[in-house]
Amino acid sequence: MLNMELYPTSSVTVYTQPTALDLWRAAYETGCPAALWRLPNRPEKHLIIHFGDELPQLPADLEDLPAGFAVSPFHNPDNERTLFLRADAHYIFTGDEVDEHVSEIENKQADAFRQAVDRLMAAPASQPTAAPLFTDVSKPDEQRRFEAAVAEATARMKQGEMRKVVISRTKTVQFSTEPDVVQLFDKLCEAYPTAFVSVVWLPERRQVWISATPERLVSVDANGIFKTVSLAGTQSAYDADGRLKQTSEAAWTQKEIEEQALVGRYIIECFKKIRLREYIEEGPKTAIAGNLMHLKSDFTVDTKAVNFPQLGTVMLRLLHPTSAVCGMPRETAKAFIRHHETHDRELYSGFLGPVNIQSESHLFVHIRCLKLEGQTATLYAGAGLTEDSIPEREWHETEMKCQTLLRVMND
Ligand SMILES: C=C(O[C@H]1C=CC=C(C(=O)O)[C@@H]1O)C(=O)O
């Protein structure tokens, strides 16, 4: 556990204000891990900087962690190896106001970061540039491999080996120049007000992860209200004429209803394991997630009323990875994924989000995301399969999921 007493913080509202871009560039140039995010339906944006050369890998125990940002890979037994960015510096952007909380920690990274911020603030403001062009450089056999894995999965499910598995694929695009990720973040926030939008810089891996995810994994707010969701089933939010559909126009097939019900059942099984009966379940309802629609049920627990302050941590351990990204039974699905996917999921379908920031923790399933390495972006998308899945349709679904980020990058 980290002792926050070592890191006293000063809280001031600054008058010569750095922009999010100045701060991001300073973190990027000086190799300080950083996370920029905006919670669903909230106006303010947050940026934290971790002053340190190595990012700790810690158990995701929400009660023990200081303020920061957690990022977990898909493969993370018991959530013990969760990357954790400490909020050594925390900036909150609300309209034109910047609220700054910077720890007095003294080390090489902190000094380099502060100097870089001063230098970038003194430099003439750079003019916004047009988003760079990009081209699809995915492997030509990606679709064939994906569809073969879907066919194999449905055959196994028909034999009764599994009930559900989520198979993913990648799409690689090459940018003409390195994209401005802060500009892309702002565009994603505007396009998807109900999504959790984030950009995370991991200098050890030389990777920037960008996402606009619709799926809450575990939240505990300042009043001790715990939330999770069951999200599955996918269709376009637009009709054949390109018109945005009403949620009431969404028609769901038996396959999609069952796919979502399995995720809900899995959540209820987790509650049962800890003998928790006092939860509220609402839904399923049709929810809009950017260019897509999903079926969604909300689960809520008042942790104060049930006297269960660690519920967030306990459920995080039980839930991850849910059957929205893995499958059922979980271990069989995990083994199938390991053998049939040709890429490493890395942080895709893990979880990420702020921990103990303003007395709240909000962790989301890391989907609708991409990994940026220099000028190359790898997009990840998965499809929940049941025995009724049709390979070409599932491929098309992953194409639509990639569009969540691509259409904003194209804008
Ligand atoms: C695994 C993904 O989405 C999940 C969440 C919602 C709907 C899903 C589906 O319909 O397959 C997936 O379970 C992804 O976007 O990569």
UniProtKB/TrEMBL annotation:
The keyword Isomerase applies. InterPro entries: ADC_synthase (IPR005801), Chorismate_C (IPR015890), IsoChor_synthase (IPR004561). Residues 143-401 form the Chorismate-utilising enzyme C-terminal domain. It catalyses: chorismate = isochorismate. Its EC number is 5.4.4.2. SUPFAM superfamilies: ADC synthase. It comes from the Bacteria. It is an enzyme of class 5 (isomerase). It holds the Pfam family Chorismate_bind. The keyword Iron does not apply. Keywords: Isomerase. Belongs to the isochorismate synthase family. NCBIfam families: isochor_syn. PANTHER family: ISOCHORISMATE SYNTHASE ENTC (PTHR42839). This is isochorismate synthase. The lineage of its organism: Bacteria, Pseudomonadati, Bacteroidota, Cytophagia, Cytophagales.
